[in-house]
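Lab notebook page, bench 4
Experiment: in silico fold of construct C2
Operator: M.H.
Input chain length: 353 residues
Purpose: comparison with the prior construct
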Amino acid sequence: MFWALLPTEAMHLLYEFSFIENRGWKDYRLQLCLSSNSENIYSWLNHSYIHIEYLQINYDKLDELIEAIHNKLETIQGAYSLKGAKQELQVLWHQVCPDAPIPTMVKLIRSVNSTDLEINHYLVSLRQDEEVEVISLAAEIEDYFLKENREVSTLELKKEFQEKRGWSDNQYYGAIRKSTLFQMSKTSFVHPSTIAWNSGMYEEVHAVLSENLQNKNNEGIPHIILSEIIDEYLLPELPNGIEWTTELLISTSEEKNNFLFFDDACTFVGNQFDIEDLDDMIAFLMSQSFEYNMEKQKKVERLLWREGIIASGRAIPKNEVFFPESSIAYLPGSDEITLSQIGEERYGSKNPA
């Protein structure tokens, strides 16, 4: 394949000049091409890409890293930040793949079928024990949706499969996780066929998100608000009376790992603002909004509600943003949040004040 001929630097130049400037490709089209080769193409430093042939990967050390993460999870009995892992296990991390950014390591971990690890927003956790039947049970749930051909609530699903058919919690939740269903709301799902989902529709949705996000990036804004995209009727029309929701938009778009999603917002993975996770987004917005890069928690939360980063009325999820390598921190003996030393180094200079 042509990509295999290109080292990292050349791929970055190709990305920026050959295809976009010289050949007139849209940025989203090139990203889509890259994502379709996700087994071989990895995101790299400074919004560039690299072919797996040019990655220095030690798979024995990768197994050791996964085992170390697994042991850490069993010790803490909770989610573990991959930012913390990159720092705490930095020697082993470097041995696996020198200078690998977190998105690259996530793909490497997933590439070796670490089925007992769940990775979400760079937080890794242990999956609940699953029974062997969940694969076939997932098909049963999908068949139910195909017959209904509509949005189905979790209340209805639990009554049908747990109360009526006697499934255990592990069977039910394992089947949902293994299924191809899309999330419609916090409490409902829909089958892809009900919305006539196909590759062409994916490309159209991807293009809408990419173009609007790129326009915001050009203005110095790292994210778009998804509900605004929906309200402006920019997305393709759906059949069977189904309307776009934020949950559905995220559910149909997150598989390719091109976007980093929040409650009602998203940014590019490997974006130009050096935002890798929720704590980074909070730190960036604080650096843009508060003169001294610190403010009371309630005021920070109101900023995040307005920008779609966390749902209106919700508190900052402490387990996702306050950890040793976080970009933000609590001031001792105070209800104020500030940029940590890491946050100051990454975003302090971006303060417009």
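Observations: Confidence is low (pLDDT under 50) at residues 1-14. The chain has five domains: 2-54, 59-126, 134-194, 199-254, 278-350.
Next step: discuss at group meeting.
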